[in-house]
Amino acid sequence: MASEDVKQRGEAAAVSTFVNLAGEAKAATEGVKSPRHALLSISKSLAAGGIAGGVSRTAVAPLERLKILLQVQNPHSIKYNGTVQGLKYIWQTEGFRGLFKGNGTNCARIVPNSAVKFFSYEQASKGILWLYQQQTGNENAELTPVLRLGAGACAGIIAMSATYPMDMVRGRLTVQTAKSPQQYRGIYHALTTVLREEGFRALYKGWLPSVIGVVPYVGLNFAVYESLKDWLIKEKTFGLVQDNELGVTTRLACGAVAGTIGQTVAYPLDVVRRRMQMVGWKDASTVVTGDGKKVALEYTGMVDAFRKTVRYEGFRALYKGLVPNSVVPSISIAFVTYEVVKDLLGVEMRISD
């Protein structure tokens, strides 16, 4: 009898232990996502970033094309003189389609670029925040503007490097005219032609100033946008916050401020990059010297391109095309579109989280 009682108690204890272990295992795995769920979440995040990039660039495509034309036009043969005149000239000489010339190539580049950029920022933010919390010993620590700047810089470098050949080809297709020395029929033809005739390195012309420029540009975009949003929400400034969220108009304004600051700081590097891409292909690299001779410029590197641009055209040349690029910063549209699409797709984490 006593042995049966001991046996029953032993069985009860075993069952209890099993139940407790099962409960602990369930609690431990509740926060762990299945591989399928994680893959779906990543796919949605990449899709949101890609859609954001495509929508934002298409919305400002005419201004984007005018910016590039202003950046590379021959200073002694001015065709585009300002935003309004430049857009009217494109309309008159090339029609409506001319305003969106190169946009297909631009979207083919910007969609994967934007997808990688936003996703990389989220991952870099999580990694940097974890390191910061470990270093400070404060599990409740939040990202600071400097840490956001670092995460944005990492995201920009990764995205730029991954899609740079497409950006180089897009630049050439955008400025291509009937008189251009090479006529590219499309993205694939341009890529293969450059690779065959100029070599693999030509696909990465201007990469260094691009990477250097993307650090302050993308870094400041994310840092200013997120910090400004965070400040408005915490301070509940001007009654702009409803249910701990900012409206679309307010977020667009935050993005516009971030984009304007970022591109103003990094713009000279963008001009130099574009000019290095066009060397040997278009008359944009041709200048007229003091004695009236035309000289086709060749750049030995980023510093040389800066020096020759300032020497022959003055410091203002480093900011050619900045005004049309500042009218409607595409980054503001991209930020808001990204967050809206992620809401629609039901992705749990946003860039603010």
TrEMBL record:
Highest taxon of source: Eukaryota
Signal peptide, first to last residue: none
Localization in the cell: Mitochondrion inner membrane
InterPro entries listed in its UniProt record: MCP, MCP_dom_sf, MCP_transmembrane
Solcar repeats: from-to residues: 40-127, 143-231, 246-344
GO CC terms of this entry: mitochondrial inner membrane
A Pfam family of this chain: Mito_carr
GO biological process, one term: transmembrane transport
Primary subcellular site in the record, as a coarse category: mitochondrion
Sorted UniProt keywords: Membrane, Mitochondrion, Mitochondrion inner membrane, Repeat, Transmembrane, Transmembrane helix, Transport
UniProt topology in membrane: Multi-pass membrane protein
UniProt family annotation: Belongs to the mitochondrial carrier (TC 2.A.29) family.
Name of the featured protein: Mitochondrial carrier protein
Protein source organism: Chenopodium quinoa
